[in-house]
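Worked Example 4.2. Consider the chain below.
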Amino acid sequence: MKLFPFKYFAIALFCFLYLNALAQQTITGNFPNLALQQIKLFGFDGFNTYAIDSVKANEKGDFTVSFGNNDYGMGYLAADDNKAFIVILAPNENLSLKGEALALPQTVKIISGEQNKLFGQYASEHPRREQALSAWDFLTKIYQLDSLFVIHQKPINAIEAEKERIKKEDKTFLASLDQKTYVSWFLPVRKLVSSVSTIAQYRTEEIPAAIATFRKIDYTDPRLYKSGLLRETIEAHVWLIENSERSLDSVFVELNISIDYMIGNLSSDEKKFNEITGFLFKLLEKRSLYKSSEYLALKVLSGTSCTVNSDLASQLESYRSMKIGNTAPNFEFREDVLSPRYQPEKSPQKLSDLKSKYTLVVFGASWCAACTQELSDIALLYKKWREYSVEVVFISLDENKDAFKRFAGGFPFISVCDYKKWESPIVKAYHVFATPTMYLLNSKREILLRPNSANHMDSWVDWFLVQRNR
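Applying the procedure from the previous section yields the following structure tokens:
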């Protein structure tokens, strides 16, 4: 028997995969109000979107756009107003729409496209179920807490029965979906993400289960990357823990457990590892959850088998080297130094020359919009802080001498610039990766705090210095 040569098999397989990737599905629409407008189709890729197709609608508002199997997931259509109409981009499923405008989803009718019909049905019914549940939850509290109603068990039982019926109806719909379809994966995740605010406020008994469900999400799943939900999923997960009526210490414990779950299997995909870890780190920093951003930084730097990209590595290294309790590097005041409080012959030459009990080291620049506001606020608060032995040293990342002097010339505290921007030895020694960045040091240069704003620093002064001196 003559065997089919392997090289021909490989060629055939390549051709099959190539043609499958090129296979096109269409979305056709009839929207008279969009006549002669440009209709654009976009897909999702992790934290980003990308253009798939674009076409000009005819004078009757008819259009057709195409997408391939590689676009499988969620997408959205937009006309000239850029308002999105969300669709499922399903292989082997052409979609046909009709309505007034993409910006008015209540007017859009799905003519064909089974997964999109199911998506549209659930998008209409689920919010109404949630509204009804919220109303019944409100009545439940009245009947449980108000002495006028608490004695009436029959309506209490009826309310509970109706709540269970609504929940069962929702679960039954989701369970009826073909588990091989994208919509069967997407809808439960969308439901979880959209429900966190309601759960935190009205159905707190569901918080542990919701957090457990978030922890089961696989962040290597390509369906998540194509869903448009990657950002919202991480944000909702963190927000729910932060707003789950826990003590702050307990919040950090739970967040750190969730961090382990989120990045646990990402080492198999270096690109996703860097993207998700970077986004999560910035989110924790933005929400001032510094103990967890430190936990994430140390975990990644000490335990990953992935190559961490240089920008992310610099951010994470700032926590390993510059974490609270560590001793900050000393540095000399070189190049241009503005020190309006000191006589030239008595001006400090290095950080350790300062005699204050506390020093706030601030990194910023004239080209940084946020720095302009923060440093202006610091300048206004400086006189008050000085009364409690808090000195300020501004390290500028400016590269232009005139720009530095115009920006820092009016500050009442020490300002230093060596015009080397990110290559400055001081910037590198403090592992600064963004501006503004602040470190509060004690007289031994031990790091006490990483303030995220002038107001944060001022709150520390009020709490630890002003209150204790009364």
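The chain is about 45% helix and 15% strand. Residues 12-21 have pLDDT under 50 and may be disordered. Compare this with Example 4.1 before moving on.
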